[in-house]
Amino acid sequence: MKTEAGMKTEAGMKTEAKTYLASLLAAHPALPGGPAAWLARLRAAALERANALTVPTTRDEDWRFTDLSPLYKTAYERAAAPAAPDRAAIEQRFLPEAGGRLVFVDGHYSAELSTPQEGDAYVGTLAGALRRDSAQLEAHLARHVDFEADPFAAVNTAFLQDCAVVHVPGGRKVERPVQLLFVATQAERVAYPRVLAIVERGAELTLVEDYLSLTDAAYFVNGVTELAIAENASLAHVRVQRESDKAFHIASSVASLARDARYAAQSVSIGARISRLNHGIRQGGEGTDCLVDGLALIAGRQLADTHSFIDHAHPHGRSRQLHKCVVDGAGHAVFNGRILVRKGAQLTDSAQSSRNLLLTGRAHVDTKPQLEILADDVKCAHGATVGQLDPEHVFYLRSRGLSEVAARNLLTYAFAAEVVDRIPVASLRGWLEAQVVERTHAKEPGG
Amino acid sequence: MQSKDGRTLLEVRGLKATVAGVEILKGIDLTVRAGEVHAIMGPNGSGKSTLAKVLAGHPAYAATAGEVLFEGADLFALAPEERARAGLFLGFQYPVEVPGVTNASFLRLAYNTVQAARGKDELDPLEFDDFVREKMNLLDMDVAFLDRSVNEGFSGGEKKRNEVLQMAILEPRVAILDETDSGLDIDALRVVAGGVNKMRDPGRAIVLVTHYQRLLNYIEPDFVHVMAGGRIVRTGDKSLALELESRGYDWLLEGDKAAGKAVAA
Fold first, then answer.
1. CATH topology of domain B8-94+172-264
2. Element (H, E) at B186
3. Chain B within 8 Å of A96 (Cβ-Cβ)?
4. Contact state of A410 with B58 under an 8 Å Cβ cutoff
5. Where do the domains of chain A lie?
């Protein structure tokens, strides 16, 4: 009897999951025929793949702690471009440091709000990029993120239309950060943000991906980011997810590093009811160096899940990873940090640290370092801590006159600051510092 | 005894306290007047540090009997931060590291919080910078400490100097320095002691909790108390410290044990 009930449940979950994906795909519009046949073939292949896949449930090992059934309850339609987005509210989020800026509202490119660039470096839409160099795009688009086994990446690729493209030619340094702003304004709609950045040999770029919301409602953002970093090139990548507290945000971000390439990433998750970031770093040559920092700052009933995968496939690679979670209320943070050191990746130097701060007794974290080391001459260290604020620290600050709340605020801020301080854009750092204090001490939603 | 203004700042009467249900302080009586320097000595486990923490309001320590008056008011009615604002300072034996917060912002936050509570003017970052640099000079501290995280990566001596700096900034009525001399080499001790001596004031009292007589070569106390088994077993002037240096604690402890037995019998 028990088994039967169990099987029914599983069958029920599968059906729900299958139906969900089908309903997303049913909304598949006839996309305008692009100028490139290869792009149409890519979309068609992704669509076919999406039709063959089912979305994950907690029975999948990779989604054990992240239950997407609240997402599957509603099949959101793809958002139409909003008639008149709140320009002032969006401009408020513009980073003053930024040079090139692309704004996408509900997944649609906004020419009025964007500052594209077409000189040494290209910062613009897919359409423009196709006119410049279709073959280069073909060589990179959907070549870094694998949609074969990932239904969300497959659906994103099937719907690929407005894509942010940043291209930096060899040896050029883009002095000012490029900001990509993805704004959600409509309730119960889905958007498919897509980013492709190509940093050529010896070039340098700072890229800020910023996801934000002008609505408090539920919606779904399903994003894919691909970053190609050529030989001896350098990319600083900041990703800030500040969706509405009711939103669902699922994204894959993959960086491919050629020989001697450098990649420094800070990914911050603040918003969304359920968020999942699949962060992949693939080493495609010797001597790469990557810094993969994460910060989840959640409260209420939020769930923030980061699955990272650093793939060391060549010798002399170095990776540093610091992932921090600050969990308030009944929030739930998940971190799975996979590091693979392949057989040929001798003299890899890798260190991973997962540190978690629980601000209440109901806050929860699941953290799992996952090291697979197949080479024999490597240096790999990892560690994880989960704890509350140290009462000795609180007392120390109180003994200097700070109230208990002020002491806890300062210590919480200090915990998060280690990641925030590494963000190379001052205005974003300042904004996040304020958020750390505000978010961790705001009243719980509905509480 | 030197002549002081004699106002009682801290009055401890019959204080008993427990940690995790274990009684550590078994009846302490201590009167500290303005202008005085008291040294509390004693072997490990005698309750010296517990006394310091109970007075500062450490939440792990519970006072179970007796009372403490701070400038005539019930000290235990005050939260730790209120005690600090009222003018009680504890220099920590093991100062806490606070990564991510610069010493400058921490010191200014503490200073302004206490100033506001005392109805005095707060300082903006520039004004505070001048103010704190002057204090740091007294302690022979490198201003580079301002930009470093609070106590993070500081040596033992640097942490203790940072404690005395906080005392100098917060200008307490009663400063309790818990083993501020432990782990210091002679040069550092001289600097720290010099800083403490500059804080001596007819209106302020200083209580030195120390394991070593050495500190008292640099800071001359008015009273020396010896603690053992959670009680003050002997009080004298600075000559008592010298006696302890030459004879050790055993002669006092034996007396204490004998007294304990006598009571038990």
1. Rossmann fold (3.40.50)
2. helix B186-198
3. no
4. no
5. 2-284
